[in-house]
Amino acid sequence: MKKHLLAAVIGTTLALPLIAQAEGSYFGANIGRTEQKLSIDGGGSIKDDVTAFKLYGGASINKNFGVELGYVNFGKFEKSETDSTGTVSISSKPQAIYFAGTGTLPLNPQFSLFGKVGISANRTKVSASVNGSSVSNTESGASLMLGVGAAYDLTSKASLVVEYENFGKVYKENGLDVKADLLSVGLRYKF
Fold first, then answer.
1. Domains and their CATH numbers in the chain
2. Distance between CA atoms of 184 and 191, rounded to whole angstroms?
3. pTM, rounded to two decimals
């Protein structure tokens, strides 16, 4: 896991000068819904949709390929249940920084499809409470991220984007896994 995190940091550091010098540079902001799924070994799983956002920037190397660097806040997932034995609550709050290679397929002068594959450095805080007794843990790690989307150019500089990204397991510790994905819409500005 530490090797993946180190690779993400080195890749990001090496890509920053390329992004800054590229002619097709852009930045953007998206908002959407993330599905967080918490799985407990031998105990099933629970999932819920939470509002999330991301900020990102990138550069086109040519009309079909580029790189992107971004930050995602997946929001806070919270579930509580009360039964005859008491109240059980669990929450997770993941966030990630990712670096990805992008591929773009222009369909016409205004509309294009894109995909991305990269690595994300994740930081997730998980808390659990049983009848007032609570525990909390924060873990950092890395995971593969994949994404697909579409962009529609509103002007020569601004585009409307819709995308789906899967960040895989953003937390894995003590028999608990947290998976996160993001479906979002936003604006991208080219400079």
1. 2-190 (2.40.160.20)
2. 22
3. 0.84
